[in-house]
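Q: what sequence does this backbone want?
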């Protein structure tokens, strides 16, 4: 079972899956930080600066080490998640039309959860 989970994690944390969204976040962060400095709590701002540093390091790791960097990227992703959710403005730009709850998690459309309706595989 452990091998199976490791395989799944390697696929999810692969450059093919993560690089483009991380690159997009990396490109949006500096402008967001500049616009919001002094507008939000300094501790929260520092948390976002730290998170941006992790995003930058993940991008650099993918670009310099490629697919051999699983353990390093996994460690950086964990540390980035310890900083909390990215700024909601950036998340909404990256996923327009997705509604987010108070916890920062995406909210599914309840109509999508109705069994059998519109499902082509039954």
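A:
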């Amino acid at each position: 079972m452990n091998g199976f989970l490791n395989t799944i994690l390697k696929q999810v944390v692969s450059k093919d899956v993560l690089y483009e969204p991380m690159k997009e976040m990396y490109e949006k962060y500096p402008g967001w930080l500049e616009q919001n400095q002094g507008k939000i709590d300094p501790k929260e701002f520092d948390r976002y600066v730290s998170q941006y540093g992790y995003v930058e390091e993940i991008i650099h790791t993918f670009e310099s080490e490629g697919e051999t960097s699983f353990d390093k990227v996994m460690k950086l992703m964990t540390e980035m998640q310890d900083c909390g959710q990215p700024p909601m403005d950036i998340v909404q730009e990256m996923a327009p039309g997705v509604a987010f709850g108070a916890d920062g998690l995406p909210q599914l459309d309840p109509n999508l959860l109705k069994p059998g309706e519109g499902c082509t595989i039954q």
